[in-house]
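Lecture 7 notes: from sequence to structure.

We start with a single chain of 151 residues. Read the sequence below before looking at the structure.
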Amino acid sequence: MNISTIIFAIAIILAVAGYFSKKRLGLPSLGLAAGALIAQQWASYVTIFLQQQGIELVSPPLSKVVITILIITPAILLTAVSGKEHGVITRLFEAVVFALLAASLLVTALGTNSDPILVSVEQYAKIITVVALVTAIANILLTHRPRKKPH
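Now the structure, written as tokens:
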């Protein structure tokens, strides 16, 4: 299985799961960004540790599996504590943005494997990431409004 197929599958699974979870995806989107930072810093150490424990993968390489898991895990954990989203259109929009952010971060971390669609995603990865994170922050700010003090 090549990297392109894995990235497409993960993006589609995250979009569908995000939509049907009926959760706000601002916080999980920030979890994807945190996961990308964690993967950037810790993937090599975790990969070496797993290899020392006797875990070996050939296709896909263990390092790519570790990077993928480190990127996605914080988002999955934060989905559990995220608030509910009731609007169908809003859920659809958030799911698409969430999947695009995941694809963008995974393409940046894993590479494109010369797939034309992934090359396009990689070309616009910075723009996709910034727009998705701004959307996530707006989503969180609109969710957590300051409470008024009782008189």
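Residues 3-143 form one domain. Keep this in mind for problem set 3.
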